[in-house]
Amino acid sequence: MTALLSIRDLTVTYRHDGREVAALNHVSLDVTAGERFAIIGESGSGKSTLALAIAGLLPGSSKVGGSIEWKLPNLRSPHAFAPPSVLPSLPKLGISPTRGEIGSSVAGTPPAALEFGESGNDSAISPQVGEMSGRTEGGATDRQPASLRDHTPLGGRDIGFVFQDPSASLDPVMAVGEQIAEVAHTHLGLTWSQSYAKAKALLERVRLPDPDAALRAYPHQLSGGQKQRVAIAAAIAAGPKLLIADEATSALDTIVQAEIVALIRQLVAEDGMTLLFVSHDIALAADLAERIAVFQHGELVEFGATAQIVASPRHAYTRALLDAHLGLDAEPLLRQAGALR
Amino acid sequence: MSSPLLAVSGLTKRYRRGGKTIAAVDDVSFHIEAGETLALAGPSGSGKSTVARLLLRLIEPDAGRIEFEGGDFLSLNDTALRARRARLQMVFQDPLAAFNPRASVARVLDDPLRIHSIAARSERPHRIAALLERVGLSADLAGRAIHEISGGQRQRIAIARAIATNPSLIVLDEAVSALDVSVRRQILQLLLDLQREERIAYLFISHDLGVISAIAHRVVILDAGRVAESGNARAVIGAPQSAIGKALVAAAPKLNRTSTQGAADRQ
Amino acid sequence: MSPLRRFLRTPEAVAGAIILVALFAMALTAPLFFPGDPQAIAGPALLPPFQDWSLPLGTDRLGRDVLAALLHGARTSLAVGLAAAAAALAFGAVVGTLAGFAGSLVDEVLMRITDAFQTVPSFLLALAFVSVVGPSLGVVVAAIALGAWTAPARVARAEVLSIRERDFVAGARVIGMHPLEIAFREVLPNALPPVLALSSVIVAAAILTEAALSFLGLGDPNRVTWGGMIAEGRAVLRTAPSLSIIPGVALVLTVLGVYLTGEGVVETAAVRRSLS
């Protein structure tokens, strides 16, 4: 198995009310190419911070230490993913986009770019993270009003990001077809008519009923589950290597949640994407992921194969999370409490 | 047998949208006995929250009857309704949105005591401290602002506010859905303790059958504003009859802690 | 960063605050430096400024001390401006809250009344009101407030319409709170920030309206006002232009100071809200 990225000693601190708060504390882990990987934790565990750090979407006010190193053994063939038409659309993006304030701290970057020669460079000059998933990253800007870190070592089009709230991540005044087509147009260098054809195909892939009508629909005309399908379509439009779903099903009811999880599972398998599934729900994650990393208060407390984590957790916190899960077969609290009747 | 604590019959609420009339709640009937937990389950858009708001008369129904504690709840005038509200309380999903953003914990708990003349002004600080301890919080929390405390603490405050007026029924609208799993379990335990000690009935609204099977006596499953099925919670969840019941059971995340799932499709 | 420090890092806000502090100092110290009647004769008529250091800004047509008048005029300008703006904001916020919270018929009636007031130019309204009731400080304040309360009312109503749908308002109803208490204790305080953001514009406009009324001779005749001084100086505009220019500059600086400070406060509050 080859690693897609390896994270070493990653530490992220935010400034809050003048105090420094550590969101992630010396985290090291590897994500294998093509695997389904889950990050589990409760609020304040740092799980979303890790997802944002991997995507290069941390707010500018955060301080980052350690490294995120990308290993790209089989980069896509240049003709498909780096057509000349992409280049003019890149606004004043330096060849060394990592020279921001975390430049020195992301130690792995320059070697990675050099090592992979042209292909590595290709990723270094790809569009800013701000364009990563076209309009869908509106959610990112909503969440991080401060300037976005536009220097992930990997090009934005190589990571698809699905946020928790699809209403916040879709542009309310742009037809969803255009939002998806824009990603294809920007990152794949397709003409607009090709991009729209691609958008329609994507809407079919995410199984939106009546894709022709959906192309012209605005986000407010869709249900929460349908909006999340659109957000997923936009996230995978540029054919990313890594799909990050940050609590992507938490705002949905259980039936829609199960549908979206099934959809993500299918898309990841069909496209050979690596999946990073961030969730507070260990049962949901266990159902989907092959490996699970459990976070608590910014620390990685346990990390292993799903079967091992679920069947024989080593850490007390993992056990507590598993015990707290209320499944249909769980012992009823009612009887434990000895309630009336 | 005496009449139930709450009896709802033929409850209907329609909305007009784009010239069409849509029934958000359509001829819904159920009852709740004193000290019992009835769960209201269903997917989003099934009308669960509308039922909650109708019961509390935050919105008025188009048709139907609500009998609460033996009286016609819908015919109460404004003054009588305000007094009656002491007995029928509600806890909201988002504990931050449910409180005035400027309020302190003390003020939030002082309001019901003052409005329903439950305690004299000088006595209220003691009552507030007692309420905080009742829901497992330190009395020192009274001086804090609502926005300073954690989500779990806020939901405990919401429960403290709800029990301040000594209600016989509390409507819990997705009251644990926004909480972390470990906190959720503590809050459920608190609700069960209160029920056992004070004989409070709950209408527990949730889309999560796992939580429902853990704490509810009976369940009513709604689909598109209508009752799809109802009955003993364990029995319905164990063998659902309606299509929506089956879909909800199938969709609930399951954690099989003995098998080696996930590995099966690892190749 | 504390709000105060953020405020102090905005140059225009600091400039505005300096002007306002100077103005308040003038207004507060006027009775100390010039304890007598500012309308009493203090020297020869039409003495130009910077000639006699006991009368630094000279005298007017009747030999009254211009500096004394300027300082006492600051009291009137500030008092009328602040009182009128406070009255307009308070009245507007209450009307807007009632309209937005009660809805239906109450909303309809109150908003049509607001429309009616908004269609009449506020200066004409003030002019008519003072002409009918007669000039005195209280009447001038009421006249100015009469034309200024509609904007706060509209802003408050719009804010209340969104706030009243929030869960905490439903929560207040559930515990049996009286609708009037909900409107004024729960909803109104949360609707205030955008209403208060209007205050700098309203204070500035009120000061200008007061000056214009005084200029037309409709101010309180027992008080020195900058508008009145400009009107007085108009008769000798060619021979003694300073008599009009000095209160005119004072007026411009005051309005500028109020406006810049207000903008600074709004900016500081906006930053704080986006941070939280």
From TrEMBL, chain A:
Record localization: Cell inner membrane
Keyword Ribonucleoprotein among record annotations: no
Keyword DNA damage in record: no
UniProt GO molecular function: ATP binding; ATP hydrolysis activity
Pfam families (alphabetical): ABC_tran (PF00005)
Domain ABC transporter: 7-322
Recorded topology in the membrane: Peripheral membrane protein
Cellular component per GO, a single term: plasma membrane
Domain of life: Bacteria
Region of interest (Disordered), residue spans: 116-151
Keywords: ATP-binding, Cell inner membrane, Cell membrane, Membrane, Nucleotide-binding, Translocase, Transport
InterPro entries: AAA+_ATPase, ABC_Ni/Peptide_Import, ABC_transporter-like_ATP-bd, ABC_transporter-like_CS, P-loop_NTPase
Family recorded in the similarity comment: Belongs to the ABC transporter superfamily.
Name of this protein: ABC transporter, ATP-binding protein
From TrEMBL, chain B:
Cross-referenced SMART domains: AAA
Topology with respect to the bilayer: Peripheral membrane protein
EC number: 7.4.2.10
Enzyme's top EC category: translocase
A GO MF term: ATP hydrolysis activity
Presence of keyword Membrane: yes
Annotated keywords: ATP-binding, Cell inner membrane, Cell membrane, Membrane, Nucleotide-binding, Translocase, Transport
Subcellular location: Cell inner membrane; Membrane
GO CC terms: plasma membrane
Similarity comment: family membership: Belongs to the ABC transporter superfamily. Glutathione importer (TC 3.A.1.5.11) family.
Subunit architecture: The complex is composed of two ATP-binding proteins (GsiA), two transmembrane proteins (GsiC and GsiD) and a solute-binding protein (GsiB).
Protein name according to UniProt: Glutathione import ATP-binding protein GsiA
Source organism per UniProt: Mesorhizobium prunaredense
TrEMBL record, chain C:
Main subcellular location: membrane
Membrane topology term: Multi-pass membrane protein
Domain of life: Bacteria
All copies of domain ABC transmembrane type-1, residue ranges: 74-262
Keywords, alphabetical: Cell membrane, Membrane, Peptide transport, Protein transport, Transmembrane, Transmembrane helix, Transport
Cell membrane listed as a keyword: yes
Membrane-spanning ranges: 78-102, 123-149, 195-218, 239-260
UniProt record, GO biological process: peptide transport; protein transport; transmembrane transport
Entry's Gene Ontology cellular component terms: plasma membrane
Pfam family of the protein (one): BPD_transp_1
Compartments, record wording: Cell membrane
Family (UniProt): Belongs to the binding-protein-dependent transport system permease family.
Protein name according to UniProt: Peptide ABC transporter permease
Organism: Mesorhizobium prunaredense
